[in-house]
Amino acid sequence: MIGTKIDLMVDSPSSSTLLKQLTHDLKVYETRFNANDPQSELMALHHCAGVTPITVHDDLYKLIALGKKHSLITPSYLNIALGPLVKQWHIGFDDAKKPSDDLIMEALASTDPNLIELNDEKKTVYLPKKEMEIDLGALAKGYIADRIISTCENQATTGFINLGGNFLSFGPSPKRASGYYRIGIQDPEKPRGNYMLAVDTLNQSVVTSGVYERQLKHGNQSYHHIFDPKTGYPIETDILSLTIISDTSLEAEIFSTRLFGLSVENILSFVNDSNNIDAIIITKDRHIHLSETIKHQIVPLSHAI
Ligand code: ADP
Ligand code: MG
């Protein structure tokens, strides 16, 4: 579901009923946020671009409003209005291609997040140009993970969701006396399931943006799926993956994309100055860079069994 594989675990006297409900909820969220589903509420919004504002579900409204805010802030590589550009490249799909520079420039002309019109009272959203499209691909999984976990918090003693590498847990892990959930951080240069280190977490989310996640190979070039909103090309960086650890999955999602194009030094100083997020950065030279307050939660690979 949601374009990925989802693991869900709950420990509860009524686990199977709860899992059924959560699976149903996941389906509802999928139709709310998916930019590729013709039936989604997001698609309905795109159909009305350049025509009329439409009322959207409160969840969608909140996510668009928050996404707009973080698209306009500095520093930020996040831009939720990047839909027209993302569709041109279509990385991660069978018809992915490198668009011509003309097409890239044309798509970029309809990606200004300032133009997204929000009406807080009526909960309406209006995209004033018909070419405009919102892409919540960088944020929706975080929002959904938070909603799923908050639904099971008062019905279970512990649980986790892993939405294709976007992890959030609550309560103590039944597997370890310490209660920590131990999360492997993928080695960006090896097949999935090979880790470079692990991090012990309690009631936290771990979200990674990585250049290895989805790629398009074109000649001897390879293009990844996180775009620089200024150039229209994949962000150029020495960073192979940026993992953000935070109390909420949405916050981890926001910052794993917002900060992706910054240098290691700038990411670390930003994260060390904010008191709610931590970072693990893996660079092309295979170095691991850590923010200050995550260091005591790190487990070297040799111990990570
Ligand atoms: P993943 O989907 O692998 O978890 P991300 O959370 O980093 O990765 O989100 C990447 C997705 O977000 C892309 O597939 C695309 O739909 C969208 N996207 C790409 N670049 C940006 C950007 N600069 N700002 C906002 N969304 C983006
Ligand atoms: Mg993300």
UniProtKB/TrEMBL annotation:
State a single Pfam family of this protein.
ApbE
Q: Which cofactor does it need?
A: Mg(2+)
* EC number, as in UniProt: 2.7.1.180
Q: Keywords in UniProt for this one?
A: FAD, Flavoprotein, Magnesium, Metal-binding, Transferase
Q: Which domain of life is it from?
A: Bacteria
Q: Does the keyword Translocase apply?
A: no
Reaction(s) catalysed by this chain, per the record, are: L-threonyl-[protein] + FAD = FMN-L-threonyl-[protein] + AMP + H(+)
Cite the source lineage.
Answer: Bacteria, Bacillati, Bacillota, Bacilli, Bacillales
Ribonucleoprotein in keyword set = no
**Under which main EC class is this enzyme filed?**
transferase
Question: What family is reported?
Answer: Belongs to the ApbE family.
From the Swiss-Prot or TrEMBL record, what is one GO molecular function term? Answer: transferase activity
Q: Where are the coiled-coil regions?
A: none
> What name is this protein filed under?
FAD:protein FMN transferase
